[in-house]
UniProtKB/TrEMBL annotation:
This is Regulatory protein RecX. InterPro entries: RecX_HTH_2nd (IPR053924), RecX_HTH_3rd (IPR053925), Regulatory_RecX (IPR003783), WH-like_DNA-bd_sf (IPR036388). Modulates RecA activity. Residues 109-154 form the RecX third three-helical domain. Residues 62-103 form the RecX second three-helical domain. It is found in: Cytoplasm. GO terms for cellular component: cytoplasm. It comes from Flagellimonas lutimaris. Pfam families: RecX_HTH2, RecX_HTH3. Belongs to the RecX family. One of its GO terms (biological process) is regulation of DNA repair. Keywords: Cytoplasm.
Amino acid sequence: MHSGFSSQKFYSIQEATKKMEHYCAYQERCHKEVTEKLRGMNMIPEAIDQILGHLIQENYLNEERFAKAFARGKFNIKKWGANRIIRELRFRDISPYNIKSALAEITNEDYLQTFDELARKRLSQIKETNSFKKKKKLADYLLYRGWESHLVYEKANELIK
């Protein structure tokens, strides 16, 4: 009988570093993701710190760049509003400075235009005839995606008379 350790792989710092270089080169990562990945590889805290330091120094890991790419992607592809983007970046332990810098990537004009298109598209899919319920369905959808409540209620009132 083998002990439970036989199936567990152990990595040298060099191996783990190479693995993380590939992981970060494939797409932007935040420190939290890399740390969790290294913990999953059973690396000790000192090794994790050493590898993180290397990745930052060699520019594989850059939290501001991650935040900007994340915000752009979620806005452009998932049509998320600022509240949802902020919440998700905070969940990834991104600093307030980097969150602010990420949101600055999205112009006010693009923001409002995307919001308008999303609201109109969603409205066309709502089969509800009662205008009160219709407004609520539209608002709930937009709020869930992180659009600010004042924008949401203004838009619902504008589009549904």
